[in-house]
Design brief:
Layout: H1 8-14, H2 17-22, H3 26-65, E1 70-72, E2 78-80, H4 82-112, H5 125-129, H6 133-138, H7 144-158, H8 164-167, H9 175-184, H10 187-213, H11 223-255, E3 263-264, E4 273-274, H12 286-308, H13 312-317, H14 322-325, E5 330-331, E6 338-339, E7 344-347, E8 350-353, H15 354-362, E9 376-377, E10 382-383, E11 396-399, H16 401-409, E12 415-419, H17 446-453, E13 458-462, H18 467-476, E14 483-486, H19 494-497, E15 504-507, E16 510-516, E17 519-524, H20 527-530, H21 533-536, E18 544-550
Length: about 575
């Protein structure tokens, strides 16, 4: 159903005054708040998981790099050297944390995907069975934890319908209208989410206890098995810490009522991230932070020092060490040599070896050859175009709609906002009309639409020539703008963005005066529009220019440990 949901004001608008005043809405208000926090927690878990995936890649590479660090005892028993052992334990720790974060992400997503008219026998599969992949990987199949899950599932089937507590507050004649409104506005869904969140918090607590129960390393006559058991113990320890932290987060959500204690954007870029003090994130276990620091030090020190000793000629002519090519079947798109997967870095979905990537960065250019040269950030040696990188010194911020909204709200004064149309406001591409969909109905970004409805000076700056169609499309989607500026191919968008006549908004109380906005925001999905020379040389003290590289779907960048 394509109807607005998630707010008591919508229910108040739907219901008769007599029904509205007869009901205590505190439980539903808390359920709506729980729903919003669960959705944000799901995003926080995804961002944390993306950070750990980057760290795991570096640690996997380090394990391959030091694989030769082995001390042979006899034909059956061996032990690894100090360096390999250190990195392999760190890798096991990160993998254990990733297993639990995958469960947190999957289960909170399953809760958020509950239908508006939920039934216990039609819940998402992961939620109906409370399927913990980490438990199946790290616990014995006969562990008591699995019995707890079965009992929990049986209790769920016995429980009454969640909306009965609210429907019971009004007479039989009023219930059909009330129930219809609760379904349409996501009220019953929110109540079910609230109930399932309680259940999930208990499950994470039980899982943390089960993982902490057997933390000792089982002895074995085979030294290799003993080492394997030791790594498994580190996995369980990290997974238990994340599970306990997840339980604390869910309990905090239950206690928060309608307050937002988790805030997270869809992207991993920007500052739109808020967590309560009860939630420690990746800092919940000291070994996780230590492993992350170890991965960073390896990439920045040992690996970089080795790679910088090789020249570009060495890459293409001399044979590579076996640690780079052992089992390698993936070809680098730059030098053409085959590499082990661990030694390929993924720059904007292209497979480039770490050697080519490092030498390109040292020479001040992106290894993706079709990126504009001016998109290279000299301050961090990263590409603004393909790495989703933000740099305040360069004056460009990479953001999605949620981050853009947060950035505008943080500005100290009103702003003039200029937005691109194709792939920013709308889902159109390459100058096509938004009214001719070719089988696909184009939509606007809902967050940008809300921004336009609440801001007096939003303008569209686009190279899409269908001006009348754009006006009609925006009007149909309740997206008010002051004007649509069409820019020809030979012109620059900077001429409109920097035109001071568009920075003024007539004061209704004084027809002769204008108020100059201190801040200008220009958002576009094309980096070439943002690095226009006119922007580079624009320097007016009374006007602050904010350039936003807008994206709807972000590839995760390399992140610091900041959750």
């Amino acid at each position: 159903m394509n109807m607005e949901q998630g707010s008591l004001c919508l229910l108040e608008r739907d219901l008769d005054k007599e029904i509205w005043e007869a009901i205590d809405w505190s439980e539903l208000s808390a359920a709506y708040g729980c729903r919003r926090n669960i959705i944000a927690l799901k995003k926080v878990a995804r961002h944390a998981l993306e950070q750990l995936e980057t760290i795991a890649d570096d640690l996997s590479l380090a394990c391959q790099y030091y694989f030769h660090d082995i001390i042979i005892h006899d034909t059956d028993n061996f032990i690894h050297g100090e360096k390999y052992t250190k990195f392999s334990i760190a890798y096991a720790t990160i993998k254990g944390a990733m297993l639990m974060l995958q469960d947190l992400r999957a289960l909170t997503k399953a809760i958020a995907c509950i239908s508006r008219l939920p039934r216990n026998d039609c819940l998402p599969r992961e939620l109906a069975q409370l399927h913990f992949k980490s438990a199946h990987s790290l616990l014995d199949p006969n562990d008591h934890f699995f019995c707890i899950l079965v009992q929990d599932q049986q209790e769920r089937m016995k429980n009454s319908i969640v909306e009965d507590r609210i429907l019971g507050q009004v007479s039989e004649e009023m219930r059909p209208q009330l129930r219809a409104s609760l379904v349409a506005r996501g009220g019953i869904k929110a109540l079910k989410i609230h109930e399932e969140t309680k259940r999930l918090a208990r499950a994470f607590g039980c899982l943390a206890s089960a993982l902490n129960k057997d933390q000792y390393v089982k002895a074995s006559s085979n030294l290799a098995d003993t080492i394997l058991n030791q790594k498994r113990s580190y996995q369980r320890s990290a997974a238990a810490a994340i599970a306990k932290d997840a339980q604390r987060a869910l309990v905090a959500i239950m206690a928060a009522a309608d307050r937002m204690i988790f805030v997270a954007a869809d992207s991993t870029i920007g500052n739109t991230l808020l967590t309560p003090p009860e939630f420690k994130g990746l800092r919940c276990h000291p070994e996780i932070e230590k492993s992350a620091a170890l991965a960073t030090a390896f990439r920045q020190n040992e690996l970089s020092a080795f790679l910088r000793n090789r020249t570009l000629n060495d890459i293409s002519s001399s044979p590579l060490p076996t640690i780079f090519t052992r089992g390698g079947r993936l070809e680098c798109t730059c030098c053409g040599q085959n590499f082990n997967r661990a030694f390929l870095t993924r720059v904007s979905q292209r497979k480039i070896c770490v050697l080519c990537d490092l030498h390109a960065r040292d020479s001040g250019m992106c290894s993706k050859k079709n990126c504009p040269k001016k998109a290279w950030c000299i301050h961090t040696k990263r590409c603004l175009a393909c790495e989703n990188h933000s740099c305040e010194q360069c004056g460009i911020i990479c953001a999605d709609a949620q981050d853009l909204l947060a950035h505008i709200e943080d500005l100290p004064a009103p702003v003039a906002i200029f937005l691109d149309f194709d792939r920013t406001i709308a889902t159109t591409r390459s100058g096509q009309s938004p009214l001719t969909s070719r089988g696909k109905k184009h939509t606007v970004d809902p967050i940008l639409a809300a921004l336009a409805r609440n801001h007096p000076n939003v303008r569209v700056v686009t190279r899409n020539r269908h001006r009348d169609d754009i006006f009609a499309f925006l009007a149909d989607n309740n997206f008010p703008v002051r004007d649509v500026h069409i820019i020809r191919k030979t012109e620059s968008k900077a001429t409109v963005v920097l035109d001071q006549s568009f920075h003024n908004l007539r004061d209704s109380n004084a027809s002769q005066q204008h108020s100059i906005f201190r801040d200008i925001v220009f958002a576009d999905d094309d980096i070439r529009e943002l690095i226009d020379p006119q922007f580079e040389y624009y320097n007016r003290k009374e006007i602050h220019l904010h350039r936003i590289l807008f994206t709807r779907t972000l590839q995760p960048p390399t992140l610091s440990l900041c959750v």
